Amino acid sequence: MGGTSSKLPKDLLSEYQVRLTHVMCLFRAHKIFSELQGGENGPYSSRVSMQKILTLPELKANPFRKRLCHVFSTSDMKDGSLNFEDFLDLLSAFSDTATLEIKSHYAFRIFDFDDDGTLDARDLEKLVNCLTGETDDTRLTAEEMRQLISNILEESDIDKDGTVNLSEFQHVISRSPDFVR
Amino acid sequence: MAQRVSFDFDLVTDVESPADEDGVHDSFSQLIQEQCHDLHDVIEMTPLDPEEESRDDVESLEAPVYQRSDSDGPQQTDHLIGERWSSDTLKVLSSMPSRTIGRSRGAIISQYCNRTMQLRRRRQSRPSIQHFPRSARPSIRGYGVETDAAGFEEEENKRERLVNNLQNLSDSDRVRMLRAMPLSLSEKKELRMLVLNKAEHSVSQNQIPCCSQLKYYIIIALRHGWYSWLSFLSSLQLWQTALKCVGGRFGTGVLSYFIFLRTLLFFNVFMFLVTGLLLVVPQAIAHPDLDQNITVRSTWGLEVLTGAGYFSHSLLYYGYYSNKPLQTGHSCSASSNKTSSSCGLSYNMPLIYFFTIGAAFFITCIILVYTMSKSFGQSFRIDKSKGLLAIKVFSSWDFKVIKKSSVRLQRANISTQLKELVAEVNHQKLKFPVLQRLFRLSIHMLAWIMCLGSTLACVLAVYYFSEYMHGDLLRRAHTNSSDPLLEEASLLAIPVFVSSLNLLLPGFFNVVAWMEEYDSPSVLNYISISRNLLLKVSVLGVLCYHWLGRVATDPQSLGLECWESFVGQELYRFLLMDFIFMLLDTFFGEFLWRVFSQKALKRERKPVFDIARNVLELIYGQTLAWLGVLFSPLLPAVQIIKLLFLFYMKKVSLKMNCQASGKPWRACQMTTIFITLLCFPAFLGAAVCVTYTMWTIKPSASCGPFQGLKNMFQAGKRWFQELAAANPDLHWLPSAHAYLVENPLFLFLSAGIFLIVIYFHSQVVDGQRKIIELLQEQIENEGEDKKFLITRLQHIHERKRRVTPRRVKEASEVHTHTLTHAYTYTHIHTHSHTHTHSLIYTHTHTHTLTHTHTHTHTHTHTHLHTHIHAHTHAHTHTHTHTRALTRAHTLTHSHTHSLM
């Protein structure tokens, strides 16, 4: 077992093949995670439920927080619970050093609300609603929404099959100069 | 064994998670209870979740299709969405490679398998042993259907290959590759372990040696330093929160005004740094022996406004700077950066003055052109689809925002922007009848005539007024008997006159534009910008003529000792007046108008921020500052103070008095346009004026760094001559200078080369655009094909739905055909797929046969028919078929077992 501040098993360190410059970050992540686990020093593979993850201040106000948990969860129960490795995945995908490829991939999966592998109009509607919020003054009217979605599809759906698939998505993203998340 | 059976049915789901298998089992038993009314429902029985199965009943042919909430709207582009697909079509669709890549692990693995292969090839440039996969991104999905566990095997195979490829990569490449894969950590770990096991050197990794630990700590510390430096840099982004706040409340249009203001501020800071460090500081340190016997009067208030009096002999103006080499005594360091040739403690002020101004203009020009080209590149991409909406929706959310209030702000911002975009798109569809258009055209003509006429009147007024004031000054210079206070105040006449014109005429333009009734806010803005620009450019042109043509050519008659300082004072006055009028405008035009309209007119609405006019005022002020740098090196400092004030004032005024524009509009290329305007008329005009002054006008004889020279340009020449005289080896320098700088041929040549380079670039871009068009056309054609195939698939499914259980044979035929179609699209072994399906089919039926006792006869029949059919279709592949059959039998057995 590791140092005094962290109970992270040392052999994991080498297993993760962390860039060793990031070890401190790793320890911090583990600290946050074990706090989420409720102080008990369970095995590192134990899971933390989605409700607990969502209490993180970074995720409290994020409209995509549930999708985040679902996408990064490897749980068999599909309940959005994360174990430590999933948590690390989440953190690394959002770090500044993650490649555009990874970011766009996960962004696509976050936006793909029904997990069918493409962004169809329903996904887009949900996405726009997430972006604008549900209050009346920010929400788009039905007509605006229809217009918006058909325009998005027209712009980004290159092969015109009515949905935006991953490569089309990445195509759009690559043209956006500030895809920072 | 039971597990394998379930794979057999697994047409679409991932093999990765046991949860799916549960789903399969569930649906399976459910199916058996349903007594299989329809054959087809038995075949397609592997949706992702069990609930879907219950919806997929025979009675209600409602497949789990997507329904648009607004299916009435006419859609040209997406026929596919409007239609309802049956669940089997959906299933085939969802197993298309382009879709699986977005969610399945296997597809990702195979994609990266290809990529590592490519990387390896590139690195080693030797032929690979394994054969290269057919398509650039094949999906394991295609194989998933083949035989019972073949999909799984295929994935294993792929994984094996990936591991092989990874193993052949170098260490760093491998790590980078693994890191770049969008897989979960545990899978990456597994892959890495596999690679390591293959390489058989998995030991000795667990121990980190001591010295390298030290190294890591040092690296950590360094990196921490770097990160804190980065965060410091990002905190330097001036006014970030204020800008975000403004953007969230008032949209991108108003935001672009403030961003532009910030850009101007940076330009001025740069200018100020250059002139301050190279001119002002050395001069201030040197204390030239100018006789400072000018009595300082105490009318301070007016002097701040006019910039005359006490200020006229200060560092602010040209006249204060000496022409002698400054004897800086000990501090050679400050001077050595320019006149480094002989560190003879001399700071050649004329030369430095000349080169500082020249270099400052040159660098500003480069920065301007660079920003302009960059923002052009961003707003005018070469492919034809604009994709603005899509980009906005996909990449506008800032995941770093965590505060509740800022999330609300961001939402408001995004919502406003989306509304703007949609409004713009909607606007493009509006059309008017001919008569109305003619009417509108005539109104526009009238408006333009009015605007141009008033601009012309303004220009003439400024011309004659300045002539009158010039005459007044001449008279006063000769009589020399009037009240000094009045004399100073009269200096303010022209600036006040011009500034009030600048204030009043845009209001008139706005009234005219209101009469014209433009319905697109962006068009209104462009029109307003062009009118205001015309006014300001022409007024500035007249003023330049006044300064350079009247004052500079005949300074003696005005009794001016130093006309450069006089022009500098004039520019200072203009700049200050401009600022004061802006303050007044903000107070009266925005604050009082808001109070008036809300209290007296009982209107709920607040006025709307006029972007065009405000931006043009900024550009006007900046032009003045650039013009004045030569005559008054500290003018950028004045401009900086002005801009800082202006930012906070405008922000407060905006929050108090204005509201977000009622018709939301997008400022898609606004920033580009502002920068272009700043570059083209403003900067270029100022640069031309300054160059003209340097090149042709004779500087004052008794003051300033260039006294005694024919023009400012000669400072360089004289310096070269001095150099050559002092050092005989450099005798070629004056002639080289004469050839390179004074001879226009060289200038023309470099400009010509520059133009040629630009031309080639534009040609290359043109070619690329053509290729992009071709490729896009091709993709669209493919899309058409896909659409066609999917519709056919859907037709066949529909036809099959209508058949009764009695005519199962036909149904089976149809089914086989369907699959053929589907996989023709995906280009993966159509024939083998057909086989697979007949196999699954058979299998299914055996099940039904075993477990349900009703309809036994029919089903046996079906069984046979299928056999025959499959045979007829696949006579060339007899082997496969028999094998498939036997396997089907074993599977039947197994399943019977599992159910018992």
From TrEMBL, chain A:
PROSITE patterns: EF_HAND_1 (PS00018), EF_HAND_2 (PS50222). It comes from the Eukaryota. SMART domains: EFh (SM00054). Keywords: Calcium, Magnesium, Metal-binding, Repeat. GO terms for molecular function: calcium ion binding; magnesium ion binding. Residues 99-134, 144-179 form the EF-hand domain. It holds the Pfam family EF-hand_7. This is Calcium and integrin binding 1 (calmyrin). The lineage of its organism: Eukaryota, Metazoa, Chordata, Craniata, Vertebrata.
UniProtKB/TrEMBL annotation, chain B:
The chain crosses the membrane at residues 254-281, 351-371, 445-465, 489-512, 533-552, 633-649, 670-695, 738-760. InterPro entries: TMC, TMC_dom. It is a multi-pass membrane protein. It is found in: Membrane. GO terms for cellular component: plasma membrane. Residues 562-667 form the TMC domain. The keyword Transmembrane helix applies. It holds the Pfam family TMC. Keywords: Membrane, Transmembrane, Transmembrane helix. One of its GO terms (molecular function) is mechanosensitive monoatomic ion channel activity. Belongs to the TMC family. This is Transmembrane channel-like protein. The lineage of its organism: Eukaryota, Metazoa, Chordata, Craniata, Vertebrata.
